[in-house]
Design brief:
The complex is a heterodimer of chains A (149) and B (338). With 149 residues, chain A is of the alpha+beta class. Chain A has four helices and five strands. Chain A has a five-stranded antiparallel sheet. Chain B contains three helices and 15 strands. Chain B is globular, with a radius of gyration of 19 Å. The termini of chain B are far apart. Classes of the chains: A alpha+beta (149), B alpha+beta (338). Strand 5 (108-112) of chain A pairs parallel with strand 5 of chain B, so a sheet runs across the interface.
Chain lengths: 149, 338
């Protein structure tokens, strides 16, 4: 029979593994931020962030009544420069143990089980045209004189 | 099963395209990947012509409005649609320039289905990437509902059994996760139709854990999800595992016991049921659309099935599967998002 102490130990272990996985992913994002900033000669940082979004599409009743769909907090991978609002690059979902982590952007759905996989997904995300457009816009807004967001 | 009679036969005066409450669909692996190792241009053209004949038979004869095809990459699939229908059709191909692109395409009649979103699902695991499948969200043109379609062609055992099995397990988990994500966008009761050549049979491990399925409709209907990812699909392909021809004592009766059979060195290999149709709980109930299992079958037209040799016609090794969704209730509350 499992004791309360054993159950607690299990919970702490799950939390520890999830935190370790998250640290690993943050390290990958920090490395990507550094490299991208060097190339673009502007400070860009990638980070996970909670964002507000519609929980689902509007129902017909909501449409007729002019009521928006309910909203929810979800995790996203964002890019931000020093004086600009963050730009959402992908929606993110974390597994109970941190991995598998899922990223959704444009017509891509990627799932990674480990650090190597996550690195590959980030590379693919950066190689995508839509990401290029968002990062370009981010830099442009940062370099526009008198515009601080 | 009576040979060749359970598919709907348009030549008998019934054209499923004329019935707005029906959505005939098909899935087929074309074996066109084999052309890469063929240097003979005549052989290549003959294979391509044979593929076009089958695709047109599925559209014209079976009235299919939605087709999933595997082992298709470089070909101009749109030209396979009968010329007189092309204005109404559209195709989903992967836009990515990935070094290992998907070889799955979807052809659909856009007067009946509007494409809302596509997701190409890849899993990154232990240094390799697995192509898990395509998840597309459609809206029925009559506003009756959404439809989530997943199409997959998983790794075969040809490159090494252990690794391939591992890849299929990973593909199964990723595909289920992607379907769950699409369901969370448009509503958990949205119909889900999964078509594929999974290179695994209905009893294999990917359908036990990664992509959870059951052979019993009742079990799927009873299923109460504990969380948004807790999905269970009815696998209608179980019925194709056994011999479809009932033996009456003939010395050399024909055989059909699956969807895949290779030519083999001396005799054809054993039948495998690699091509399958999986549906969500919502397609088994009284919701707006449901699976009509009475017309779900292996396509046995002579353009693709050689009855005398009891195998797919050369150069093919897979038989198509054909089925129908039918609208069983008045349009629901859902609307398309513009």
């Amino acid at each position: 029979m499992t004791s309360f102490a054993e159950a607690l130990k299990k919970g702490l272990d799950v939390h520890k593994r999830a935190a370790e996985a998250r640290n690993e992913m943050d390290e990958v994002l920090a490395a990507a931020s550094k490299e991208v900033s060097e190339v673009l000669q502007g400070e860009i940082s990638f980070r996970f962030q909670a964002v507000d979004r519609p929980a689902r599409v509007q129902s017909s009743r909501e449409l007729l009544a002019g009521v928006p769909a309910p909203r929810e907090q979800s995790q996203a991978l964002t890019a931000r420069s020093q004086h600009s609002a963050p730009s959402v690059l992908a929606e993110v979902g974390f597994g109970e143990l941190g991995y598998p982590v899922t990223l959704r952007w444009e017509s891509e759905f990627r799932m990674a089980d480990d650090r190597d996989g996550f690195e590959t997904v980030i590379k693919d995300l950066l190689a995508h045209g839509a990401t290029g457009a968002k990062l370009g816009a981010l830099l442009k807004s940062t370099s526009t004189p008198g515009v601080a967001r | 099963m009576t040979h060749g009679t359970s598919n709907v036969d348009a030549t008998e005066g019934f054209d499923p395209r004329s019935v707005p409450a029906r959505l005939p669909f098909a899935w087929w692996n074309t074996k066109l990947a084999a052309l890469k190792s063929t240097s003979n241009p005549e052989k290549k053209q003959a294979h391509l012509d044979a593929v076009i004949d089958v695709v047109r038979a599925l559209i014209r004869q079976q009235g299919c409005l939605l087709l999933g095809l595997a082992e298709v990459r470089e070909q101009n699939v749109f030209e396979w649609v009968p010329p007189e229908m092309r204005a109404d059709w559209d195709v989903i191909v992967e836009p990515s320039t990935d070094s290992r692109p998907f070889d799955v395409v979807i052809l659909f009649d856009r007067t009946r289905l509007s494409l809302m979103e596509t997701r190409w699902v890849r899993k990154h695991h232990a240094g390799y990437r697995v192509r898990a499948g395509l998840v597309a969200t459609f809206a029925f043109a009559d506003n009756s509902d959404w439809l989530i379609l997943a199409a997959a062609h998983w790794t075969s055992d040809m490159g090494g059994t252990k690794d391939a099995s591992d890849r299929r397990m990973n593909a199964a988990g990723a595909l289920q996760a992607a379907i769950a994500a699409s369901l969370s966008d448009v509503g958990s009761s949205t119909p889900v139709l999964i078509l594929g050549d999974f290179n695994a049979e209905p009893f294999d491990s990917p359908f036990g854990g990664g992509l959870a399925t059951a052979r019993s409709r009742a079990e799927v209907q009873r299923h109460r999800p504990r969380n948004p990812s807790d999905l269970l699909f009815y696998n209608a392909a179980w019925r194709w595992l056994s011999e479809q021809y009932r033996w009456g004592g003939e010395p050399s009766p024909p055989t059909l016991a699956g969807t895949y059979r290779q030519e083999g060195k001396n005799v054809p290999t054993v039948w495998r049921t690699f091509d399958q149709v999986l549906v969500s709980q919502s397609l088994l109930g009284s919701a707006s659309w449901s699976l009509d299992e009475r017309v779900l079958d292996i396509f046995q037209d002579r353009c693709v099935f050689d009855e005398a040799k009891s195998r797919p016609c050369a150069p093919f090794d897979h038989l198509p599967i054909v089925g129908h969704l039918q609208r069983s209730a008045l349009p629901s509350d859902r609307v398309r998002q513009s």
